[in-house]
Each structure stands twice: as C-alpha cells, then as structure tokens.
Design goal:
The protein has 142 residues and is mostly helical. Helices cover 71% and strands 0% of the residues. Helix 2 packs across helix 3 and helix 5 crosses helix 6. The chain is globular, with a radius of gyration of 17 Å.
Length: 142
C-alpha cells in the first residue's frame, strides 16, 4: 500500500476543486474557508447560509471519514495550548484583514488569475517560509 501514498493528496485536491466549483455554480460565490465559516455561523451580512453550513459540515465529515481510514497515524502536538490559541486568533484576524484565507486566495483566486490573490498567496508563502526558517534555524538552533 506504500506505493499508493499519492492517492490521498490527489483525491483531496480533486475534492477541493470539485467543491469550490460546485459552490461557485450553486451560490455564485468564491469558496474560502474563512468566509464560509462566517456564513455558516451567521456572521456574514446575509445571515446563515445553508450552503455554508453544508460546506463546513462536509469538511468535518470528510475529516472524520479520512481519520477512520488512517487510524495508525499518531498526532503529537508539542506547542502550548495558549500558543495554539494565540496563533488561531492571529490567523482569524489575518483572514479578515487580507479579505480571505489560503483556500479562497490560493485555490479559487489563483484559478481566476486575480491579481489580489496572486499577491496574497505569494505573501503567505514567503511569510510561511521565513517563519519556518526562523523557528527551525535561528530560534531552534539556540
């Protein structure tokens, strides 16, 4: 089964693309997890969106199905809970400040050749690479 390791990411990528395309066709909006979460929770201007609820619910169900197939995977979290909470809050503010998240800009925005999404995605990738470098090579090396 080791030679089939590419099937999980391939099928996940296909499902993400299909989901984003269906959301655009059914609701006329660009799929992004931060916006969909806001619409599912009623934080968007239009109130609670049934498609947003279904999209977020599908992510949870898909994760549960994948977890049931990958029971041997072990998850170890080494960071403190407070650091994880602070990181989550910063990501939430960043998605609002940047008018979208990695899924909205990186998957849907790049597919539409949106200049704003190209700049946003390049920015997250550069900042992510710099963060990994600093944490692993500068701070981690102390």
């Amino acid at each position: 089964m080791e030679h089939l390791n590419y099937l999980w990411p391939l099928s996940g990528g296909l499902l993400i693309g299909l989901s984003a395309a269906l959301y655009l066709l059914l609701d006329g909006r660009i799929a992004g997890i931060s916006g969909l979460t806001a619409s599912a929770l009623g934080w968007a201007s239009a109130g609670i969106s049934p498609l947003g609820v279904g999209f977020i619910g599908g992510i949870a169900v898909g994760a549960a199905i994948a977890f049931s197939y990958i029971r041997h995977a072990e998850l170890t979290i080494e960071s403190s809970p407070m650091l994880l909470i602070a990181g989550g809050i910063l990501v939430g503010f960043g998605t609002r400040l940047g008018s979208g998240c990695t899924s909205g800009h990186g998957v849907c925005g790049l597919a539409r050749l949106s200049p704003r999404s190209i700049v946003a995605t390049a920015t997250f990738m550069l900042v992510a690479a710099a963060t990994v470098y600093v944490m692993r090579h500068l701070i981690g090396g102390l």
